[in-house]
């Protein structure tokens, strides 16, 4: 998938000097003034590496970058660098893979740059309209530094108000899957309007084409789509009556029809997070080797809707109190899926209910609050996202041969997930970028 640009930035002390004006501005190269004629190798030293693979942080490490790739990783002093390599001392800093937002809908360069400012170097656009898909293509956002964008194609839907491409039959849906796959789509998304009877045919077509199938917010939940063969299910708070005790299903359906109580509250009130009905969903996820995209920040955002959220419907004070009181059930449900080894992803749902970039960090915080260790949440935000997008060979972990897409942080995110927001600089394809005093990205040379 082509990238719409690339960012870059220097070690923490140099960054601080640039932002305060202590360095010669001639050392900063503007986004449109690339001064590098040949690939330059850089050795990042004295840094603690969190590689996204689940192991503990590795202090006193060195990472060699050349030609946009990670060429070597090792203990301090053990990495041999080519002559002329620029050595960048990152003492006290932490190096982690760039984040992957598994569910957002950026439409403009400014929105993408906001994601990049939050450390998101890859984003799955899961709600592209047909017009935007044809007009924009994949990654066609100009030359500004932005994350890599992964577009599957117009979401499959049906009915009078489709979210993507309107389909009239299962045959048409299968043909659309084949068309998107032939067009190079990295995944296929199926929306709530697609009749359940079409799901098996759609899933079979996706398997034949070797493209993942994502079930996005299906009416009545995702369990049926998962059984049909969906690769990714979302959200955690699905409203799926099959995850509830049988005795509670009729009352949920009655409340949903009446529309008197928000579905997430009514559903959580009836949920048994460790019950046998949830176990069936765990089995379906594990048997398919499918991933779950919780979107906790999206579900909880209605407690305090952000000003720039697109469709967030604020709750009344009573509803907000009710959701807060019952939220521990959502946390317990996350613990159930995680405890059974279900692969979890991190997605912001921006701009539907969360602001650009901030929703992603809110999601990580909520996962930690649910009882998942920060180090594991970091793996969900990096490695798991790459797996779901078929990009693990390129990004998602700090490994030799992969793209040099990573973040350098001022503090340890494994000790406090909020430190993942303390970004010193971002590296994409080997180029580091910093914000200047005017809030613009500027490429910075280390020598």
Keywords, separated by commas or semicolons:
disordered N terminus; five-stranded parallel β-sheet; alpha/beta; 447 residues; ten-stranded mixed β-sheet; single chain; 13 helices
Task: Walk me through the structure.
There is one protein chain. The chain is α/β, with parallel strands linked by helices. The chain has 13 helices and 20 strands. Strands 1, 2, 3, 4, 5, 6, 17, 18, 19 and 20 form a ten-stranded mixed sheet that branches. Strands 12-13-14-15-16 form a five-stranded parallel sheet. Helix 6 (223-228) links the parallel strand 13 and strand 14 (232-234). Helix 4 runs parallel beside helix 5, helix 8 (263-270) crosses helix 11 (317-339) and helix 12 crosses helix 13 (374-388). The longest helix has 23 residues, at 317-339.
- Based on Cα principal axes, name the global outline: globular
Helical/strand content category: alpha/beta
Kindly state the percentage of residues in helix.
Answer: 25-40%
Strand count, sense and closure of the main sheet? Answer: 10 strands, mixed
Low-confidence stretches: 1-37
| Overall pLDDT confidence | 83
Strand content: 15-25%
Which radius of gyration do the C-alpha atoms yield? 22 Å
Number of separate strands: 20
- How many helices? The count is 13
Oligomer: single chain
Taking the alpha carbons of the first and last residues, their distance comes to 31 Å
């Amino acid at each position: 998938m082509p990238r719409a640009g690339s960012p870059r930035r220097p070690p923490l002390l140099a960054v601080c000097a640039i932002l305060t004006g202590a360095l010669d501005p001639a050392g900063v190269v503007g986004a449109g003034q690339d001064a590098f004629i040949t690939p330059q190798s850089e050795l990042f030293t004295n840094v603690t590496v969190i590689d996204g693979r689940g192991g503990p942080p590795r202090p006193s490490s060195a990472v060699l970058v050349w030609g946009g790739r990670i060429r070597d990783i090792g203990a301090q002093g053990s990495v041999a660098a080519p002559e002329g390599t620029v050595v960048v001392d990152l003492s006290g800093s932490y190096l982690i893979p760039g984040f992957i937002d598994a569910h957002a809908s950026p439409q403009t360069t400014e929105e993408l740059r906001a994601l990049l400012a939050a450390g998101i170097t890859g984003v799955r656009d899961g709600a592209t309209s047909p017009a935007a898909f044809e007009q924009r293509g994949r990654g066609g956002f100009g030359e500004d530094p932005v994350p890599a964008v992964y577009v599957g194609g117009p979401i499959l839907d049906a009915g009078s108000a489709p979210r993507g491409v309107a389909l009239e039959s299962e045959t048409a849906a299968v043909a659309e899957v084949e068309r998107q796959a032939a067009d190079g789509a990295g995944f296929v998304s199926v929306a709530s309007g697609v009749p359940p009877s079409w799901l098996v045919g759609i899933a079979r077509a996706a398997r034949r084409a070797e493209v993942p199938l994502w079930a996005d917010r299906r009416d009545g939940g995702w369990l049926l789509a998962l059984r049909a063969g969906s690769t990714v299910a979302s959200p955690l708070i699905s409203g799926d009556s099959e995850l509830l005790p049988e005795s509670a299903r009729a009352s949920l359906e009655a409340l949903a029809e009446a529309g008197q109580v928000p579905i997430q509250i009514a559903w959580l009130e009836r949920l048994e997070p460790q019950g046998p009905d949830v176990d069936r969903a765990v089995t379906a996820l594990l048997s398919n080797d499918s991933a779950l995209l919780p979107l906790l920040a999206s579900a909880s955002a209605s407690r305090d809707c952000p000003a720039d959220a697109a469709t967030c419907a604020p709750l009344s004070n009573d509803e907000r109190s009710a959701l807060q009181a019952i939220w521990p059930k959502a946390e317990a449900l996350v613990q159930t899926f995680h405890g059974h080894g279900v692969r979890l992803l991190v997605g912001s749902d921006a701009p539907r209910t969360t602001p650009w970039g901030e929703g992603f960090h809110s999601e990580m915080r909520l996962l930690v609050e649910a009882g998942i260790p920060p180090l594991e949440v970091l793996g969900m935000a990096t490695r798991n996202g790459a797996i779901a997008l078929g990009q693990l060979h390129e990004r998602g972990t700090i490994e030799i041969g992969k793209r040099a897409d990573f973040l350098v942080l001022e503090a340890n995110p494994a000790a406090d997930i909020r430190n993942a927001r303390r970004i010193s600089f971002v590296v994409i394809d080997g180029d580091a970028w910093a914000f200047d005093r005017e809030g613009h990205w500027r490429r910075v040379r280390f020598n």
